Amino acid sequence: MASIKDVAELAGVSRATVSRVLNETGQIKEATRDRVHAAMKKLNYRPNPLARSLATSSSNTVGLVVTSYRGSFFSELMAEVQEEMDQQGKFLLVSRGKRSRESEQLALQRLTDMRCDGLILHARNLYDEELIELAQQETPFILLDRQVEGLEDRCIAFEHAEAGKLAVEHLIQHGHQKIACLAGPRERLTARLRFQGYEQALREHHIDLDESLVAEADYDRQGGYQAMAEILERHPDITAVYSCSEEMCVGAFDLFREQNMTVPGDISVISFDSVSICTMLTPAVTTVHFPIKEMAAKASSALSSLMNHQPLRKLDTFKPELRQRESVRTLK
Q1: CA-based angle 245:249:250, to the nearest 5?
Q2: Average pLDDT score over residue span 32-37
Q3: 116-164 pLDDT per residue, tens
């Protein structure tokens, strides 16, 4: 394997000159730079990332904290951040925060111990005070899908409550009154906000909230199946369901097939959607879109600005978009 010494000898320069070319420091004549690059190509020389990081005081890595490695939402999130980091020539390190504050603290500690140049945090359980304290440290970070007072220039958020309200109002406008809700775990802020949108839409249209029409589950397929089964056992006469995640929506469709229920003939469905799952169901499901891909791209771009010491203003709060398809029937 070729060394920096071999490159220097072939290019006819000192090892210090090769280092300056690699690290893009100092004043180097263009002809000298070209000779060094030509020597590197001929010898198939690849710089040692560890040695380069020690020389530049940069690890050339970005850390990402996610709740889980599983599921379409997190796959989309990680893929988009990876895409952006590839374009910036950064290595991406991903750590799983699971579903507790302690696990998120450990995930964050692992990435800071790796001396990442910057962090993107999809952290649901860390206290606001912990994040404000982290902002006093030298490692820049961006918060994804969270709003913390005092850190507005680091937060990329989404209007979850507005999205929930938009979804349920769409059902109401099509004549539905008895609307079930497949809710996420309400100890989570985003799940509470999605449920608040459901409550607000009912209230504004003078429909009483009936908690027996609501079932909580984790944002997964099996949870959606079980929650839908619970509601239908209590209320077989519901005409519509609002699902707070696309994975739960798939679980509900599994149950409908078992019970020979048709969508939208027997029941209308609307769901949150962050990827393309709801378009793959039959019929394609009307959704309020949660643009995680766009939000992840924005987070990566904002973090790049912070790492380059460029000031940031208050970041974007993304708005929901209603995507009408074939799963909602108008009642006469």
Answers
A1: 120
A2: 86
A3: 999 999 998 899 999 999 999 889 999 999 989 989 889 999 999 999 9
Q: How many CB atoms lie within 10 A of CB 212?
A: 10
- Residue ranges of alpha helices (H) inside 179-275 are 189-204, 221-234, 246-258
Which is nearest to 282 in space by CA: 239, 326, 324? 326
Which part of the chain has CATH 1.10.260.40? Answer: 4-56
Domain 61-158+292-319 annotated CATH 3.40.50.720: no
Q: Indicate the CATH number of 4-56 among 1.10.260.40, 3.30.360.10, 1.10.10.10, 3.40.50.10490.
A: 1.10.260.40
Share of the chain above pLDDT 90, in %: 62
pLDDT in tens, 283-313: 999 999 999 999 999 999 999 988 888 877 7
pLDDT of 56 higher than 70: no
Report how far residue 233's alpha carbon sits from residue 228's, in angstroms, rounded to the nearest whole number.
9
Q: Give the residue-averaged pLDDT of 245-274.
A: 96
- Superfamily designation of domain 160-290: Response regulator (3.40.50.2300)
Q: Are 20 and 47 in contact (CB under 8 A)?
A: no
Give which of 151, 116, 56, 65 is closest to 307, Cα–Cα: 116
- The CA–CA distances, whole Å, from 202 to 67, 182, 224, 329 equal 31, 15, 22, 18
The residues of the chain that CATH labels 3.40.50.2300 are 61-158+292-319, 160-290
